[in-house]
Specification:
- The structure holds 2 protein chains of 2 kinds.
- By secondary structure, chain A is mainly β.
- Chain A has no helices and 11 strands.
- In chain A, the strands form 2 sheets. In chain A, strands 2, 4, 5, 6, 9, 10 and 11 form a 7-stranded mixed beta sheet that branches. A 4-stranded antiparallel beta sheet of chain A has the order 1-3-8-7, with no helix packed on it.
- Chain B is mainly β.
- Helices cover 0% and strands 57% of the residues of chain B.
- Chain B has strands at 4-5, 10-14, 19-25, 32-38, 45-51, 56-59, 62-67, 72-77, 86-95, 101-105, 109-114.
- In chain B, the strands form 2 sheets. In chain B, strands 2, 4, 5, 9, 10 and 11 form a 6-stranded mixed beta sheet that branches.
- In chain B, a hairpin with a 5-residue loop joins strand 9 and strand 10.
- Chain B starts with a strand and ends with a strand.
- Classes of the chains: A mainly beta, B mainly beta.
């Protein structure tokens, strides 16, 4: 499809395990974002990539969270030593950036629901 | 400290009537405001936006109003249709280092349009 693709759609893991979540952005979109949505909350910013580099990772909650985008397209969010509080829907979004007057519209994927038991 | 607030967790409206969803914000530095719509098990979908230098933007049945002095915006949907039933998120945009945009979201309002 032409939209943002995220895998897996659901992931159940045990506390302390390592998890990887994958995002395939819209072709041609240089900007990629990860957000996290907890139950009853709106999405919260985690990290922003412009091309291959993490331009802003100020939203990552702690050093257990890490993300990469080695070739400027697909991105992987990595969570080490998972905790029950990490349970949430992890959303990936992409956009065309650098456009004058851009509104900041992001195109979101369907999310990866992570459950840590 | 929530910078974007949606104080109504739910709203029920009859088909054909107007739906008004409200949002308040605290940070004067936001340069755009956006509304997203979300169906269950799907990602948020962009609906409409407004620049901080405007006070109204209209797109078909959807109109967003911005009152900067009150730090308040609202989304009007008229006429409301059953397919509009979804969670609506208000979001505010600020520029990030490197040219991107950070969206700060409210907690959402569940709209139900009844027949």
């Amino acid at each position: 499809g032409a939209g943002v693709s995220q895998t897996p759609s659901n992931k159940v893991t045990e506390k302390g395990k390592y998890v990887e979540l994958r995002c395939d952005p819209i072709s041609g979109h240089t900007a990629l974002y990860w957000y996290r949505q907890s139950l009853g909350q709106g999405p919260e910013f985690l990290i922003y990539f412009q091309g291959t580099g993490a331009a802003d990772d100020s939203g990552l909650p702690n050093d257990r969270f890490f993300a990469v985008r080695p070739e400027g397209s697909v991105s992987t969010l990595k969570i080490q030593r998972t905790e029950r509080g990490d349970s949430a829907v992890y959303l990936c979004a992409s956009s065309l950036t650098g456009l004058a007057g851009g509104s900041g519209e992001l195109f979101f994927g369907e999310g990866s629901r992570l459950t840590v038991l | 400290d929530q910078q974007v607030k949606q104080n109504s967790p739910s709203l029920s409206v009859q088909e054909g009537r107007i739906s008004i969803l409200n949002c308040d914000y605290t940070n004067s530095m936001f340069d755009y405001f956006l509304w997203y719509k979300k169906y269950p098990a799907e990602g948020p979908t962009f609906l409409i936006s407004i620049s901080s230098i405007k006070d109204k933007n209209e797109d078909g049945r959807f109109t967003v109003f911005l009152n900067k002095s009150a730090k308040h915006l609202s989304l009007h949907i008229v006429p409301s249709q059953p397919g509009d039933s979804a969670v609506y998120f208000c979001a505010a945009s600020a520029r990030l280092t490197g040219g991107g945009n950070k969206l700060t979201f409210g907690t959402g309002t569940q709209l139900k349009v009844e027949l």
